Amino acid sequence: MVTPGRYPLAIVGAGALGLHFAAGLAAAGPVALVARNAARADALRAGVQVGSRRLVPEVFAPEALPEADWVILLVKTGDTAEAARTALALQPRGVLSLQNGLVEATLRAACGTTASVAVGQGITTEGAFREGARVQPAGAGETLLPPGFEAVAERLSAAGFRARIEPAIAAARLAKLLVNVAINPLAALFRVPNGALLAPPHRVLLEALVREAWPVLRQAGLDLDEDAALARVVAVATATAGNRASMLQDVLAGRRTEIDAITGTLLTMAEAGGVELPTHRAVFTLVRRLAPG
Ligand SMILES: NC(=O)c1ccc[n+]([C@@H]2O[C@H](COP(=O)([O-])OP(=O)(O)OC[C@H]3O[C@@H](n4cnc5c(N)ncnc54)[C@H](OP(=O)(O)O)[C@@H]3O)[C@@H](O)[C@H]2O)c1
């Protein structure tokens, strides 16, 4: 049993990405991992294979937490509010989400009036997936953090992750949301790897989703013109041609998807501006039919 103390860094969410980051960070210094419950924490304490590394994490359940200076949140978006409350119980200086979708509002609402705690959402293109009991890293990426999270960026960099502060983090989040609203629902609906979306019959829908989303995201601060937006989505689908998007993995595993935080967020933004996005509305409804959001 690990004695609770104060950690420089904690990760809430011991899934694919949480364990991937934990394995790298643990090799460079102490990191606390928070699992969903005591049973999961006990199981993880026996060790878990993460790529070529055997991680024996310092893992805790929400009922018996240590303290931590900084917390990285890596649960699926539907679990954000509960995980944020756990994060706050670690008495941190800041809580950083690296989830997909836009969750900062949920995070701020869950963190309430604790003004002394920094709250922010960064983005990451690190990848990992669960394969039975083990976690398989899916290629190194880059992690961009909001200003104020320099200490976290330093720890990630020291552990060998490409990580930096991005002053224009809001625009970067919107660019990631653009990619996610285009690729994720289509991959899940058609059950195809990302690269298949570049060819007929899927390509016409991919382009429709990008062109519908673009004015809304541009209005919100996306720093790409319309052609560059499409080029960005095509580049990601090309670079990840053989990958199964996370929403497809969720559908295939019968798990809840992140459609609410991805397409749902876009639809809410559009509604606030009095705009209809019929293609996004259709894929939102269809994905919700496949699996609850
Ligand atoms: N995987 C990737 O390659 C990747 C890349 C970029 C971004 N992301 C984003 O990162 C986030 C996490 O993705 P993932 O693939 O790592 O998901 P995942 O494998 O499902 O892991 C999420 C983990 O969070 C745990 N959890 C749920 N609620 C919790 C709570 N209240 N307290 C503590 N732990 C809790 C889950 O426990 P249970 O197992 O008990 O449900 C699960 O182990 C998502 O928003 C995803 O979109 C993932």
Shape: globular
CATH class descriptor of the largest domain = Alpha Beta
Query: Helix and strand string, N-terminal first?
Result: EHEHEEEEHEHEEEEEHEHHHHHH
From the N-terminal CA to the C-terminal CA, the straight-line distance is 37 Å
Give the tally of structural domains.
2
Give an account of the 3D structure.
45% of the residues lie in helices and 18% in strands. With 293 residues, the chain is an alpha/beta fold. The chain folds into 2 domains: 6-165, 3-Layer(aba) Sandwich (Rossmann fold); 169-290, N-(1-d-carboxylethyl)-l-norvaline Dehydrogenase, domain 2. Helix 3 crosses helix 4 and helix 6 packs antiparallel against helix 7. A 6-stranded parallel beta sheet has the order 5-2-1-6-7-8, sandwiched between helices. A 3-stranded mixed beta sheet has the order 9-12-13. The chain is globular, with a radius of gyration of 19 Å. The mean pLDDT is 95. Bound molecules: NADP nicotinamide-adenine-dinucleotide phosphate. Residues 12-18, 34-36, 40, 62, 74-77, 79, 82-83, 86, 99-100, 124, 127-130, 138, 246, 258 line the site of NADP nicotinamide-adenine-dinucleotide phosphate.
Brief overview:
The protein is an alpha/beta fold and 293 residues long. It contains 11 helices and 13 strands.
What layout of secondary structure does this protein have?
Blueprint: E1 6-12, H1 16-26, E2 32-34, H2 38-45, E3 48-50, E4 53-55, E5 58-60, E6 67-73, H3 80-89, E7 94-97, H4 104-111, E8 118-121, E9 123-124, E10 128-131, E11 134-137, E12 142-145, H5 150-158, E13 162-165, H6 169-190, H7 203-220, H8 226-239, H9 246-252, H10 260-272, H11 278-290
Parallel strand pairs: 1-2, 1-6, 2-5, 6-7, 7-8, 12-13
Antiparallel strand pairs: 3-4, 9-12, 10-11
Helix pairs in contact: 3-4, 6-7, 6-8, 6-9, 6-11, 7-8, 10-11
The structure holds NADP nicotinamide-adenine-dinucleotide phosphate.
